[in-house]
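User: What would this chain look like folded?
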Amino acid sequence: MYFLSYSRQEFYFAEYLALALQERDIPVWFDTQQLRAGIDWAKTIELALQSSEGLILVASGASLQSPYVAIEWEAALEQKKPVYVVVFEAVDLPQNLRQSLIFDFRSQFEAGFARLVQALMGDSTRSDVLSTHTRFHILTSVSRDVALLSSTLFTGGLFGVIFTLVSAPLLKYQATSFLVFLYAFTSYLFVDTGLRFLRRRFSYMRLRWTLILLLLNTLIFFGSYTLPSGVDPDLRGIGEIHWLSLYGIMQYTSWFPTPETGSMMWYLARGLFWVSIGISVISLIGLVRLRQSASLLRWMPLGQAQQGLYNRVKKQFSKQHVTTAESVTSDKRTYYVYFHEADRHIYNSVNWLLKADSTLKELSKPDSEIDIPTVILSEFTPLEVLEAINERHTSLIVIVVSSVQVPSSLSRFHQYQWVDYRMRELTALNELVAQVGYGQTEHFSRHHPVPQGLSRFIAPSDIQGLAVLWRVLGAITFAPGVIFLALFVMNAGDFEKVRQYFYLGTSETIQVWLIPLFLVVGMFRFWLADRLMLRRITRSWYPVAAILALLPQLISGGLIISAFIALVVYGTRESVSSWLPDVIGRRYSEIDLRTYRLRSLAMNILLVVIVVVYYVLVELRPV
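Assistant: Here's the prediction, encoded as structure tokens.
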């Protein structure tokens, strides 16, 4: 029997490897198959190491930094047992492991697996030679599906950069003002998601919806492309969105030569047209593979795989090795989670993860004898609850879900184990469960000290990006209202003169009632950005507020812009749902928001000034 040592972050890869080896009738000791409730975890692993023929180490950044994994492979070396190093990602192996048999699984799992099986059966002593580690090494040593998705996202980002540069000189034309923002924003989103994906710090939902957005972007470009001369003119555009293509910009502005001249810009437009077709096809393939690819499942960090993909991949193994021993319920370690009703959705996530561990049992009522007392700490947690917990327990795991101020009277809280969940990174919860499930809370506290700056305002990156979007939309709406109001006052209430200041026939649609409407809608969007950042709107009311904020845009005929914004809002719904509270109750911990308020006000003013300058230079004309 071979002992499989790994980090919980690579659980999907390790489990797949264990099942694949067992499918080939190679006995493997895999912890989740062998550890049952009520047994001595440390002693069981020690006995398994002693009785094993050798150790298979899944070498990753997380496993090589884990003190528990190090104890396992160092024990195997001390006992003169062979260590088979399975390289999961680009790593620098410790000197003691470089003499072991090494198998490179990074790009081709099947080939590495075949060599590992031969070595375990004694038919080969071949060791793979790892290339020199570089900063960009990970980009060339990944599986085909991982390379497919990452290259698609990076190509989409490059595609957007090209369009941003091409469209920027055309800002004087109204049709391209939003276009530049669209391409710039999506370029950042695609590249950022691609980097997160390669670093295995991604969210499955964000990856999926970014691919959908990329597919829609390229399909819009494909559908709105004005075809070469000689083709039926009715096929040359699709209503409002024909200007979304590079060739459509040429036709709209007459800025570039016509296609009949065969100019360089025309050839560039045709080239980008075919690139968009390729990106659309690859994005669609990526979305399909995301639902069925075993290599993508093996790449995902713990907690990110969807249940459908997980079940679909495991079905290919005919031999399902599970523990058949009866669980000893009375010996399970008990836990209880204190939380405020506003944070019930976070409690549900934490409790779901803890319940998945067969060695843990939840108590229905708090008790001083709880093995793993846990509290979800937010600005809604009542002080009297914290004081009662402080008196009842001598150890505690604190999951911080928002910026808070811990009273000086509860200074002993700083001696407890802490989990910083303010950025809503599932890896923090996964590490918690992996540690407390094994009864290692004492070691856990050393690796996770009290988060620094608990009172400093922090919000997840997705929430910050969505708040910026609402602020930009607020400025785009609020600034015209300011301009209309200023012109109305300057012309002594003569709105007929105000109408004459605008290009492109918009003077026919401008009415007096638009002034307060622009101001109110702009202020509402600013308000929504603040409520979102500060967790002062509930998960159930946010969708209603978002629809109200988008309604004026939709009524005014901005179908494409509204559809894009709605897609972004929908794509971030998981992040928003995880961030916002279930109810708005009394806040027991008021943090210092002066810095945030100043930055928020400065950003709002800056955005409004930018939009005002744009209108003055581009949209207004002297009467």
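The CA atoms of residues 402 and 468 lie 20 Å apart. If you want, I can go into more detail on any region.
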